[in-house]
Every structure is written in structure tokens, then in C-alpha cells.
Amino acid sequence: MPLPYHGTPCDHVSARPRFTARTFCRDNPYYLYMNPQLPISEPLWNTVPPEAQAALLVAWDSLKDRIIELEAMVRDLGARLQLNSTNSSKPPSSDPIGLKRKPPTPPTGRNRGGQPGHPKAQRPLVPAERLRSSTDCRPSSCRRCAHPLLGDDPNPLIHQVADLPKIEPIVDQFRLHRLTCPGCGATTCGTLPEGVPAGQFSPYTQAALATLAGAYRLSKRQIQQLAGDLLGLSISTGMISKLERQSARALEAPYNELAAAVHQAAVIHADETSWRQQRHKAWLWVAVTAMTTVFTIARNRTAKVAQAVLGTQDGSIAVTDRLGSYDWIAGTHRQICWSHLRRDFQAMIDRGGAAEPIGRRLLSLSDRLFRWWHRLEDEEVDRDRFRAAMARLRREVKAALEDGMRCGCQTTSGSCAEVLRVEASLWTFARVAGVLPTNNAAERALRHAVIWRRISGGTDSEQGSRFVERMLTVVATCRQQGRNVLDYLTSCFQAGRKGHAIPSLLPVTEPAIKVA
Fold first, then answer.
1. Which of 120, 342, 404, 443 is most buried, most CB within 10 Å of its CB?
2. Chain-centre distance for alpha carbon 20
3. Is residue 374 within 8 Å of 123, Cβ to Cβ?
4. d(Cα 338, Cα 209) in Å, to the nearest integer?
């Protein structure tokens, strides 16, 4: 019995035409033959008894749904393998070697290094009162005719050479005598003079070791080696751990003060990344304001933790990604990060098919958004004109997202629906002055912590986590405020050993937001 065929013969392969899944209805008795997943020749099919043909068709009908499911799983796994920092929230450190994040810039034809007219970078001269020595170098004779030369140059060239003295610890010894009373026989031991620390290391030494860990991410063994090689200081890793615990306790008050102040900030940038505590997964949160940065290590990243980090008071605006833990924030008090959105748009392009034109359209619209934003920052346009441009752009972005929901790609449709769900939070920056369209401030703050995590592998105890979050907070906040980390830590440890109040890190004022 000849097979029904309604297509065009494929003469480049054989005289017999190929059949596709679209040629036949599922009820056709030759559905099994034509399906490319299970090819079978016509002569072989005719040798199969009708009962076996029926059994094969039933078996194939039961397997096809499983095959479709497995094919979808393979496509999903393939898409995951293509994820990188350009089309997802994965960090750049996880990118494979050789990944090109953007097309290379064309060569300019100029030589490498500083170009003519660029600002000269020169180390400032040390003032005369701080010089170890000063030597005048005068020529004795003319370099051309050898005539003797006398006098001074009113404006001599200054050449300074910096040197470091060999560092040797300054050790003070206190001998505590224990004397026996001749009357009652009791023994009494001498006490340390006022101001002498009970420990073996001064506040400055403790601050220096804490800075090596918190600001420069050195491990305890590296700190031990550096202390011996550079400072001539003999110290055990156990003592370094003890000093870190003492440091964490001393920094508790200023840390809690900063954490409470975050709740009152006008604009808060928030983000989180994974952490390891006691070999279990935890999360490191960061909240960045104009003048402070606060880190918190928590067991999870639920909405409850987000509320504890950001506070629940009215008036603040949070700049975040689309994590569901922030959904309790009202849409008008939240700004979704456009850098994250651009990575999602790039993922649509990389996905191909019906998703690609949607991704290119949305990415082009985001390019327009940032061009207008940079013009506003450069004061090329006023805020009224900027708001009008954003209103037009908002309508176009919403239309593109709605088209994406109907594009036929399930993943892209879901992404567009998710963005539309928080569409009101995409444009807070256009309405409120002082709000940025990206969350780059929080991501930059987390970068230092991520490198520390990759080097150390996390923390082994609650006490270690408290040291990490408090040192990260102090270092980042001091950098924001232009303060010296070592000087601040020294003042904290000195005050703590004397029982005085710990110096605060709170800024005098925080910038206020303005609704445009």
C-alpha cells in the first residue's frame, strides 16, 4: 500500500521522498514510519504484523511525551551552559577563559602609555621638616669648558628618595612581684600601671593585624608570616584569632549604630551574595547609603532578613534586583537595577529564535535610557526634559515586554512577565532626584567581600562571621568618608581597653532625596 505524500520529492538524496512530522496526522497508521525520531523503511514496516504495528504505535504514543520532556530538559541545560556574566547574574570571576564580553575596541594608532597633554601624575614632595637629610649637589666645573663654578641655584631641581626603616617591635617589660606578708603569710602581686594593656599587644598592633585581614584579605597564616618577615613580630595563629574576636567585640557598638542609621537613609542600595559559615550555606548582605556601608551575614535571604537589613519605615527608596525577598517594598519606593535587566535582555538574544528580536529591541531601548541618563548627569538636559523622554521610553518598553510575553518562547515570556510585574519600580529614578538607575554601588561593595570569600572559603564560627561583617563595614565606610582605617581601628581599641565610648562612624548628615 503506497504511503500518502503531499510534499516535494528530495531528489538530492534519493528518488524516494523524505517525510516529516507535518506530513501526517497522529491518527495516520504510518505516523511511526514518518517520525524522524524512529525511522523505519516501508518494506520493513510491511513485514510487521498488524497486531505488532498497533502495539508499536501505542508504545510510541506513550513515549513521545517523555521524549518531548527530555528534549526540553536538554534545551534548558544547554541554555544554562551558555550563562555568563553578560547574560545572567553570575559574577565575572565565574566566566570561562576566553569569553569576550564585548567586541574589542579598534586600535587608535597611538603609542601605549600616557598621551600628550594628559595630567601628570607626580608624587608630592615631603616637607623639609620631615626629611632625614638634605644634601646640596653642586657642579665643580663647566661641563663644556671646565671653568670652575661657584654659587647656588635659586631654584634647584629637587630629587627625593624614600626609604623605609627596618621595623623592629618596641617591647616594654613589666615585672610583677609577688610578695609574702610577714604578718599573716598572704601573698600579694603587683599590678600593671594605669594605661598598660592586659594583653601582649598594643591597640595599634591589634589594629594593624585587623587591617591586614579586613582591608587586605590576608589569611591568619599569611598575617603570621608577614608579621614575622616585615614587622619582626612573633605571633601565633591562635593569638591572631583571639585578637580578631576582641576586635569584633570592640566594633559591636559602632556597627550597630551604622546598621540602625541605614534604616533612616533616603536611598539604600541593597544586594546579597552567598557565603559559607560552619560549612553551611549562608548569605552576605550589603546595604550602601551615600556615606555608609553595612554588611550582614545571615543564614538565608528571606524577606524577613531583608526587612532587618533595610528597615520597614516609610520614606526610604531601595535600589535592588528582582529578588522576591524585596517584594514587600512598595513599587514607588523601589528601583529595579537596569544593569540586571540588560543582562536578561542579552540572555534573550543569546537564546535565539523568537526571543532574539525581543531581546535586541529591549536592549536598544535600555541604550537610549542610559544615553539620556548620562546627558542628565552632564547637565546637557534639564530634569523636565529628561522626565518627558523617560515617559515616552516607558511606553515603548512596556509595549516591548508585552510583545515578549506573546513571542512563543516560554523562558522569554516568563522573563517579560516577571519584569512587567515590577514595571512601576523601573522608573523611580526618573521621578526622584538622587536615585540611580543601577545597583552598581552595592555590587562594587560586594566585590571585596566576594574575593575574601573565595580566598578564605567563608567562616568557621559565628564569632568569625561577626568579625568579617564588622571589619567589612568599617573598611568600606572609612573609604567612603575618606578616613584612615588603621587610625580609626586604633582609636576604637584604645577606647575599648580604657572603658571609654567607642568612636562613631556616623556621618554628620546624609543627603536627602528630592521628588522631581
1. 404
2. 49
3. no
4. 39
pTM: 0.76
State the DSSP string of 379-415.
TSS-HHHHHHHHHHHHHHHHHHHHHHHTSS-HHHHHH
Q: What are phi and psi of 413, to 5 degrees?
A: -60, -40
DSSP state of 148: B
Half-sphere exposure (CA, 13 Å, Cβ side) for 305? 20
User: Beta strand pairing status for 267-277 and 317-320?
Assistant: parallel
d(CA 448, CA 206): 22
Question: For residue 291, which of 481, 514, 488, 482 has the smallest C-alpha distance?
Answer: 481
Query: Quick check: helix, strand or coil at residue 141?
Result: strand
* pLDDT confidence of residue 198: 79
Q: Take residue 64 and report the three cell numbers written for it.
A: 513521545
Residue 299 CA to residue 225 CA, distance in Å, equals: 33
Give the H/E segment covering residue 288. Answer: strand 280-288
- Tell me, letter by letter, the H, E, C secondary structure of 56-102: HHHHHHHHHHHHHHHHHHHHHHHHHHCCCCCCCCCCHHHCCCCCCCC
Residue 425 CB contacts under 8 Å (≥ 6 apart), including other chains: 331, 332, 334, 335, 336
Q: Packing angle between helix 252-262 and helix 462-481, nearest 10 degrees?
A: 70
288 contacts 448 by C-beta, under 8 angstroms: no
Residue 422, classified by CB atoms within 10 Å of its CB into exposed (0-12), middle (13-18) or buried (19+), is: middle
Cα(96)–Cα(310) distance, integer angstroms: 35
Position 215 scores a pLDDT of 92
Which DSSP category does 268 fall into?
E
Query: Do 308 and 299 touch, CB atoms closer than 8 A?
Result: no
| Terminal Cα distance for the chain, rounded | 78
Residue 257 C-alpha cell reads as 549604630
**Structural domain boundaries in the chain:** 1-53, 248-332+446-515, 338-433
**DSSP for residue 504:** P
pLDDT at 70: 85
Regions of the chain short of the pLDDT cut 50: 1-39, 516
Residue in 130, 151, 131 with CA at minimum distance from that of residue 140: 151
Between the alpha carbon of residue 77 and those of residues 46, 80, 352, 477, the distances in Å are: 39, 5, 15, 41
Other residues' Cβ atoms within 10 Å of the Cβ of residue 57: 17
Residues in the chain: 516
Parallel, antiparallel or unpaired: strands 432-433 and 280-288: unpaired
For position 104, what pLDDT does the model report? 60
